[in-house]
Amino acid sequence: MKTNYALLLFLALSFSTGFAQQKLDDVAALVKEKKYEEAGQVLNTLLPAILPADTSAFAEAHLLVSRIHYYQGKYPECIASYESLAAYLPAGHPDLGDCYFECGNAYMRSQNMEKFVECNKHAAAAYAASQGAQSIEYTKALNSLGFGYQFSGEYKEAEKVLLEARRIKEKNGVFDVQYGRILNQLGNGYTRLNKFQEAEECIAAALKVKESTRGKNNDYAKGLFNYSMLLQAMGRDQNALEKIDEAIAIGLKDDARTEELDGYRQIKASLLKDMNKQQKATSLYEEILQNKLTYEEEKSSNYAKVLLALSNLYAESDNLPKALELCAEAVDIFKKIHGEKHPYYALALIEKADLLLKKGETTGLEAMYKTASAIISQKYSRNHIEYFKSEYAYFLFLKKTKEYSQAIEKIQQIDNIITKHIVDAAKYLSIRELVEITALYHDYFQQILSLTSLNPGNQVLTSKALDCSLFYKGFVLESMLKIKKAIKQSKEITDYSEQLTEQKLNLSEELDKEEKDNVRIAALQDKIASVEVEMSRSLGRLRQEDEQLSWDLVRFELSDSEAAIDFVRFQSESGADFLYAAMLILSNAEAPVFVPLFLESDLTKYFDKKLTTSDGLIQRLYSWPKRSATPLDTLLPVSLYDLILKPLAPHLDGIGRIYYVSDGILHNLALHAIPTALDSVVSDKIQFLQMTSFRNLILKKKIDYSQKKKKALLMGGLKYGSDSGGTRGDRNNRRAWNDLPWTEKEVDEISGILQKTGYSTLLLKGEAPQKHSLQEHVSQNPDLQLIHFATHGFFTTEDLLQVKSKIDVDKTNLELTQSGLVLANANAAESGDALITAFEISEMELSQTDLVVLSACDTGLGQVYENEGVYGMQRAFKIAGAEYIIMSLWKVDDRDTKVFMTDFYRNYLEKGMTIENAFYATQKMMKESVFYPVKWAGFVLLK
What we know:
Blueprint (H helix, E strand, L loop, with lengths): L4 H10 L2 H16 L3 H11 L8 H17 L3 H14 L7 H14 L3 H18 L5 H16 L3 H18 L4 H16 L3 H19 L3 H16 L3 H17 L4 H17 L3 H18 L5 H16 L3 H19 L4 H17 L5 H16 L4 H16 L3 H23 L4 H7 L1 H16 L4 H14 L2 H14 L5 H19 L5 H22 L11 H6 L5 E10 L6 E9 L6 E7 H5 L10 H7 L18 H6 L11 E5 L13 E3 L2 E2 L5 E4 L4 H4 L12 E8 L22 H16 L3 E7 L4 H10 L5 E5 L2 E3 L7 E2 L4 H7 L3 E4 L12 E3 H4 L9 E5 L6 E4 L3 E4 H8 L3 E5 L5 H17 L4 H15 L3 H4 L2 E4 L1
Parallel strand pairs: 1-4, 4-7, 8-9, 8-10, 10-15, 12-16, 15-18
Antiparallel strand pairs: 1-2, 2-3, 5-6, 11-13, 13-14, 16-17, 18-19
Helix pairs in contact: 2-3, 2-4, 3-4, 4-5, 4-6, 5-6, 6-7, 7-8, 8-9, 8-10, 9-10, 10-11, 10-12, 11-12, 12-13, 12-14, 13-14, 14-15, 14-16, 15-16, 16-17, 16-18, 17-18, 18-19, 18-20, 19-20, 20-21, 21-24, 23-24, 25-37, 26-27, 33-38, 38-39
């Protein structure tokens, strides 16, 4: 286009400031209407006529030029224009802040985050000089600077500037959209730092501000995006998916840019992957990748993130070549965009090293792991969970390459990071969230056990393995007990507690129905989770720090004639089977002794993949080898003694009592009844006491018996209704509940023993014991010292060999409804009040109860979870707070049970024995009178 100099001269002479401003306003209007070509043409005509001396017009004109370049995607030209203007404007000029701020945005679009941060520093200083350090412009620059620091991995610096921006806003009482954005950005940073409580408070508050000021627009959707990332980090995947789906819907309605929508979809794909919906996740990631290739001139950081996620999915499906190809490209992109000192580059480097290790390559990998850990250490600190993950990946490499001494050193360096992370989180997370956050620890613990099995004589490693077990086994159960304890200490959360109880009762009623409304069940579970989250946040400051326990503390509690055994289950190196081992503690030992035991298949193969509780199986299991389990003639005999006790025998000379914590299918075996010869069993010489955790041995309950009232509740002699009267004499019958005539004699005789020894007793018989009446009696008598149930028990899971490693909170609630106790009129057509499930029992308050006796069949059984034990009656009563539980592992004859129970109470109360000694004495008496294990060994004592 040719320049008309005569016209320009005329314009230069005739331009007044007002006329120039009017023309610039016209250009600004064209830019607002997105008519960039037309606006550019007008500016090309105007620019030569605007003299540099007219600073205001000159600055505005060049800002408009830069903005047009920005909106047209001409970022190099845009940056050059802004930098030229910045060099021209004097310090303190009102447009200098905008110049730096907008130039920073152009640098961000050009993937130069270092320059983005630099520009925003200059913008903040310029705004402070021209507008003041309390201005909206200054806080805008601080918010943008905080984002830049976060993107660059400088999370501490980000927190500092964002808190300053927040302080200014709150001091001035300005709670506008920008305030919401600052809160949102601050919450995002807290998510990265694993400060989940602070993150949720900020992001939830930001959403409220945004909705109240502008409604649910695309800016609100960005808040939902950050909220979903927080929820994902906390393990609340379903809630996160709901938030991101809402964000996508708003974005589509509000005509959000494709890049923004794809950002939302990336989070959704990540959530689908976490929820094991791999195919849907892969399809969504591939769709996003194609979109990015369409609208991105250069491959961006987000493009690399999608590549990395897809790489991980391909690796899970064993397509290593494709996984490596995508991962390598992601590494190169991160390196190009962010440089070699950014967390994104470090995480991609670890992923690449892991894939190469999986492929069987080892050359150069150590350097990659070290480099990645060094970057993350610098950006996050050595106490951050991301640093643990990077060092844990390095540990797995050392273990794989058999550098065991280095691997052990690595464990010693990082163990405290993950334990502290979980302990800190436990104070503020609901049980649902806690289950998710401990998933990483599960893998870590499994690897430590595996390494210990490869180095069984290393005392440092065996000590660390047992300390890990002591920390982790029963961790969720212990957290539940701490929550219940904290609730009692706080009046301010009574409302939450009452809401939770009400919702759980509603859920229990829904689960009791034969035709279940799955939609309502899901809604109730979501409501319970929501209330638990709110309550957990309120309880955080009340829940005490977990006392760090070590195996040494267990040893100090043992006498010379006692031992403690922690049975553990872990995956074999091949991944094809599970190994069992015992970690043995003796009072005079310098370290625990690691004793390998057996493969799970060594036991399960004899029972056609299912362990049931038939009399025939029990007889085979607990008989000397000539009569051991041989379902098929072609199979060799199996001996529980050979599998479990023989490897331990050399260490047990002089031991008369063993405290033990079970794992896996060992939960379903009566260790005390394992035969050692044709006419003897292990309990002839050694007393076995099962514990849920060795915490119970170390942290003994401090009981002031002088203040305790001797109160007992007994239930027996129930009338089950018109369909009763069958011939079965055991205490488990799921179809028709038979009368159990010996239970009435049992509770009558026990009641007499109790009253003779100073107890006041509440006796429930006949048709009186119903669920609501039982719950009412327990609620009105929170100081019950002893509870005895003599009735049918039920347990519907058949496969007792199945051991689950991952807890699903919703499913475990369902599983706790699969076992329970039968009450009066259970054979009636409408018997909803005639069964009480383990789930309902877990809601009772029994923290003052020393002993619960379950004089019924199968009450010790349930779904077994690795490290958390049995989800059934025993867990329910432990959650309720009972100290000791007597329960059964199989069906027990009605009359034999009556004899066992009355003898136990005579030993306990009339002879003044402890609960433990009374139980062992009773077992011994029964064994001597009827040797068959099916008659005497079914009951076990759990502390």
